[in-house]
Amino acid sequence: MLINCVAYQDGKKLSDIPVADISEYIILPNAFVWVALKDSSPAELAEMQFEFGLHELAVEDALVGHQRPKIEEYGDSLFVVMHTVEVNDDGLHVGEVGVFVGTTYVLSNRHGYEQSFNDVRTRCERESHHLKQGPAFVLYALMDEVVDRYFPVLETLENELWKIEEQMFATPACRTTLEQLYQLKRKCVQFKHAAGPLMEAVSKLDGGRVPYVVANSTEYFRDVHDHLHRINSGIDSIHEMVSTAIQVNLSLISLEDNNVNKRLAAWAAIFAVATGMVGIWGMNFEHMPELQWQYGYPLALSAVLSTCGYLFYRFRKSGWL
Amino acid sequence: MLINCVAYQDGKKLSDIPVADISEYIILPNAFVWVALKDSSPAELAEMQFEFGLHELAVEDALVGHQRPKIEEYGDSLFVVMHTVEVNDDGLHVGEVGVFVGTTYVLSNRHGYEQSFNDVRTRCERESHHLKQGPAFVLYALMDEVVDRYFPVLETLENELWKIEEQMFATPACRTTLEQLYQLKRKCVQFKHAAGPLMEAVSKLDGGRVPYVVANSTEYFRDVHDHLHRINSGIDSIHEMVSTAIQVNLSLISLEDNNVNKRLAAWAAIFAVATGMVGIWGMNFEHMPELQWQYGYPLALSAVLSTCGYLFYRFRKSGWL
Amino acid sequence: MLINCVAYQDGKKLSDIPVADISEYIILPNAFVWVALKDSSPAELAEMQFEFGLHELAVEDALVGHQRPKIEEYGDSLFVVMHTVEVNDDGLHVGEVGVFVGTTYVLSNRHGYEQSFNDVRTRCERESHHLKQGPAFVLYALMDEVVDRYFPVLETLENELWKIEEQMFATPACRTTLEQLYQLKRKCVQFKHAAGPLMEAVSKLDGGRVPYVVANSTEYFRDVHDHLHRINSGIDSIHEMVSTAIQVNLSLISLEDNNVNKRLAAWAAIFAVATGMVGIWGMNFEHMPELQWQYGYPLALSAVLSTCGYLFYRFRKSGWL
Amino acid sequence: MLINCVAYQDGKKLSDIPVADISEYIILPNAFVWVALKDSSPAELAEMQFEFGLHELAVEDALVGHQRPKIEEYGDSLFVVMHTVEVNDDGLHVGEVGVFVGTTYVLSNRHGYEQSFNDVRTRCERESHHLKQGPAFVLYALMDEVVDRYFPVLETLENELWKIEEQMFATPACRTTLEQLYQLKRKCVQFKHAAGPLMEAVSKLDGGRVPYVVANSTEYFRDVHDHLHRINSGIDSIHEMVSTAIQVNLSLISLEDNNVNKRLAAWAAIFAVATGMVGIWGMNFEHMPELQWQYGYPLALSAVLSTCGYLFYRFRKSGWL
Amino acid sequence: MLINCVAYQDGKKLSDIPVADISEYIILPNAFVWVALKDSSPAELAEMQFEFGLHELAVEDALVGHQRPKIEEYGDSLFVVMHTVEVNDDGLHVGEVGVFVGTTYVLSNRHGYEQSFNDVRTRCERESHHLKQGPAFVLYALMDEVVDRYFPVLETLENELWKIEEQMFATPACRTTLEQLYQLKRKCVQFKHAAGPLMEAVSKLDGGRVPYVVANSTEYFRDVHDHLHRINSGIDSIHEMVSTAIQVNLSLISLEDNNVNKRLAAWAAIFAVATGMVGIWGMNFEHMPELQWQYGYPLALSAVLSTCGYLFYRFRKSGWL
């Protein structure tokens, strides 16, 4: 689906243009066309391929989807794949944004991602002194937006970890904690798959041999790279703490088990003593003088109770009860 | 066993040719011969070695089999070893495809792998504008096919993990889950041994000093490399989740143990109390007035029952029962 | 908030100057201006940006805060971000120090960090032969101070580990130990996020292509790098020992559990024997001659006691009690 | 001990020669001398050092032994250390083979390794077209042999793992399994110490700046490197599976424990119920009408039995028994 | 404290000289001065700094101590820091040796290390053909000595591991084993901190751009590097085996626990049966014919005993007792 198709010259918007006129605009000096697609059909992509002369393999990748985040050079154009990440009820939802960048065009194409990038366009049009730099700046603005949207996701995961930790040390261990830890780990792995390769890829736009089309904007991409670095080390921290939490949680469970066993042992001992004692006076020997005593029964009962009480006191003191 | 032996010129099929005529065709301009073998005998390989002038060490490797996936340069020809991977009942079945590529020939040779590569040939013959690029494109097409066949395997493993996870959190722990996790880990390790070294090897065909014979097709091999990257990070994810699952499963087992112990403790306490109480009235003291009461017996019984009931209620409330 | 704004020439302090006069001083030969800000407002930063011609992206980073430690080159100026680390009651408090360094100015700006760097300024003014080297030396002095303040933090963590270890092997396992280990791990991860990237960044100032502005001071930065190396390997050691401690602690818990179980088993056996024995003489058979014996009762009691005593002795010998 | 000392020219054996005549042969065109020593004495090595002009440090290393596998260049000669590995009853037996290679000589010297390398010599003499390449080919042949002898060791370890796995999932956990896993891990570590550094070292003979003496044989050494790569990744796989097996085994033990606990709980409950019930009718109340019933006793017994039977049925159904 | 101060020329000792005369000797052709200090005071170091023109930062490092092992170039002199390691009762004692090396001097300075390096001096003076190479050879000799003294430490740790392993598999698990494993891990970490960075540092003296002052002795430093490689991989092995041992030990503890639980279950069952049976005949029903039998009592007793005996036999057979 075509979202926008706008021509720009010298950092200023010329006008919304029909796709068919693209070729007339991209030959103007300092002009470029910025097209935004969403869940594009093969036909749309084919049209774009024709208009902009996109490389066959890049178009194929964009059609098939499920690419890793990457930045590929085809001659002097770039094909960038980024993953969008949203938190929903049962995990992370990962969408895809493909961006084709040439010297005279930017074509963005998102798949399975509802949020639009209109604010990026608005911001770019406002900062026309930057937009003068052409498609490279647009690419930067799109990347910056995608990456900036990673931060709330990271925060959500951090909060989740925070809650699990609190619950882990405050309440007895339960299956839910374990399942949450497992799901958090899974989300970290998913998130890392979005942010990790992108960081790697972006590092190629900053330093070393930089592709021609972004050569004048390396400082901007270094900034994006830096943000990705923070995202990634944030994920790594959560990752590591989750692993530790799983281990610590196992220890907590064992500790609880230990406590249960101690109580079990203590109560078993107390009742075994009582049962043993009353059993004694239940024996049928003829010559058991205490059985005839006037106060034999209450004495026996109090003997049993005081023995049990003493044991109870001992166990409590040694922390078993 | 010889499967096909076909000569091509300018991207078009000339004809099926007998092995003996190979040398006449490979001297035609822009022509090359594409031979497909299966479980080749030493004699067949020796013949091929003679026709194409293959390097002794490469031929030896192809004969012995059990090579790691690799790409080796011998002068200006390449020897490529790839592993095919199939899921069967008790693990992964790994086969081997060796490809010799020179400027005028492609010789593929598969071992222990039933599925043919005829569709690759069909596709290549259809896309004659690509086939013009010669043996390099054939190599790409073969690699692409082998790697594309990795994706369903990856999916199978992902589904397996998925099922184990569900079962792990839904039902009590059992030996089967553990054995499945162990086998899944084993499959990951096996799969990684196929896909990991191949990725490494392919990266040499894309960027840096590229072997002469594939110099004009690096973009294609970058695509293969990218797919292998996805496969490998997919395997790594499963790998990591399996390790976590093993740890979490241990915790689940301990937790269950904990619950069993709690129930054991609770029931033991309830019955110990009952036994102790009835033991009291089983004592033989002469002066136990309640024994003579008219309703002593039902009173005693209800005392025992209400005590046990109260304990039951307490344990239930504190989650032990 | 402006802390200081001082002009220096040939390593000597000229005078405290108002911000508005900065531009007059930085054109003097061998002169530079050193400004210290604290929790600067956007307006203050904007003024500084105007006076020193700071790069827009660097200023934005300084405003937003929450940057990773890094050293970035903008033309021939540097933007350095360092983290300050303080230990407080519930974890580590991390602040931020941003330093802009050009050939004629140093601008430091700290966020969320109360301790001042006045002693750095005092030391620099005292060592005027060093201060002659200009802004690079000031940068070194600031870095050296920040890094030197890491050492007491490292020591605190080492002491914490030390205490946990002692307690772990000396007293029975408890939740507190586990929570402390977990928190220590968290602190390590936090600390590492401050010290790790800084080390990486500083290594760029020593060896290889060194930024122009610090070119004559690489030996100093190598020293800082070396200190950071020590800090980092110190953190890594604690990290590793914490992981081991968590594992060992789990074993200690299991061991304790084992002991409790043994005791439980032993006492259960002793009382079960006693109960069984007294139960025998509580049977109502008519022909049980020992019941009529004069000393049947004391004999029975001593039989029970001596059996239990023997069991007790056996269990004690085998270490179960 | 001197095993052989043979002179070769143009790939053909000239004759067995006494050590003293070495210097006369190594000056012939295209000739070289191949000496094999076993557990050489200092005197023998000193003689060789004199004849071939070996480097002092290399000779010292050969004398002292216990070197890591390595390849060192001394001027235009090489000193190669390889480890031989044999499986015996209580672990791996590691021997050492040192090879000195110059343009006119090969001197091999094995320590603590009984198997001879005579078949290598036989093979080399048979393939005289290869032997023409001189000492480099001999070095290759020796390395190839040492590395080929690693494969059966790898297989033995794989089989060991296989057996442990089978036993682990088929029978209840026991100390033996754990000890075997531990020993297997130890063997992996030992084996890795032989094969890992050698792979690293051999990679220097293939690609990059290759030592002069082997410059014409890099393809052969690439082959050795490849074999070592397979060995090493084989060891890594075992390594990894052993670690997983240890973890899984712990889970299996816990699971078994869990089952034992469940059974314990179930039986305890059944007998506690029975004991409690018979205790009731053992009470001495005067008014317990069922005691006078004609069939009170069998009724009581069957009440007890059916209650226990019902419990048994319930526990069996819920999988506790 | 000054230990020695000796001047050498052409590899021969000239004489012991007072510190004040150093400057006269170091201008002689092919001469150098070798000074050994121990726990040097700031004043001594200042004197040396003046005599040899040492770099301020290096001197500061030597004064402060607690450096990581490192090799730093200052102009054409080197500053080397090595750690000495000694085993004592409660861990490793780590000392420090700092060596300043210039073209005309060697200054060694040890801290917290009692053993002298006099034998190094003796050996160097004996091998005057080597000593001719000047300060570089002295540096090599000192390094070689420090590293050689690592080997017995490594052996001690290996023996410790060995003992722990034996004890672990031979006797029941106990706290001591765990504490020993933990301490061994700690020692490995400490040792690694001494040997690891030194290896890294030494690798700069062998291959690549080598500092001028040691340029003619790279082969010697490669030898030291090689020894350090062995030390480090030895430590790594112990490290890894300790981690495995901790895991295996946990399994052994669990296994023991399992056995205890089984025994507990078995004995509990046996006694519960006995108690239940004797309880039956303790019931007060009027019509229990067996109570009147002449041999009822012995029959009952033997019924109980044989039931218990049968259970005992069953449990023993199934390995629970």
Give an account of the 3D structure.
The structure is a homopentamer of 321-residue chains. The first copy, chain A, is of the alpha+beta class. Among the domains of chain A are: 1-132, 2-Layer Sandwich (Beta Polymerase, domain 2); 259-317, Magnesium transport protein CorA, transmembrane region (Methane Monooxygenase Hydroxylase, Chain G, domain 1, Up-down Bundle). Helices cover 58% and strands 17% of the residues of chain A. Chain A has helices at residues 22-25, 42-52, 56-64, 118-126, 128-131, 135-148, 150-170, 175-202, 218-280, 296-317, and strands at 2-9, 12-16, 31-38, 70-74, 77-88, 91-101, 105-111. In chain A, a hairpin with a 2-residue loop joins strand 5 and strand 6. The two termini of chain A are 69 Å apart. Chains in contact: A-B, A-C, B-D, C-E, D-E. At the D-E interface, strand 4, helix 8, helix 9 and helix 10 of D face helix 9 of E.
Q: Can you tell me the residue ranges of chain A where pLDDT is under 50 for at least 5 consecutive residues?
A: none
CATH topology of the domain at 1-132 in chain A: Beta Polymerase, domain 2
What is the overall silhouette of chain A?
rod-shaped
The rounded distance between the terminal residues' Cα atoms of chain A is 69 Å
Annotated CATH architecture of the domain at 1-132 in chain A: 2-Layer Sandwich
Q: Beta fraction of the residues of chain A?
A: 15-25%
Q: The biggest beta sheet of chain A, please?
A: 7 strands, mixed
Strand order of the largest sheet of chain A: 2-1-3-7-6-5-4
CA radius of gyration of chain A is: 35 Å
**Count of helical stretches of chain A:** 10
What's the helix-strand series of chain A?
Answer: EEHEHHEEEEHHHHHHH
How many DSSP E strands of chain A? Answer: 7
* Helix-and-strand structural type of chain A: alpha+beta
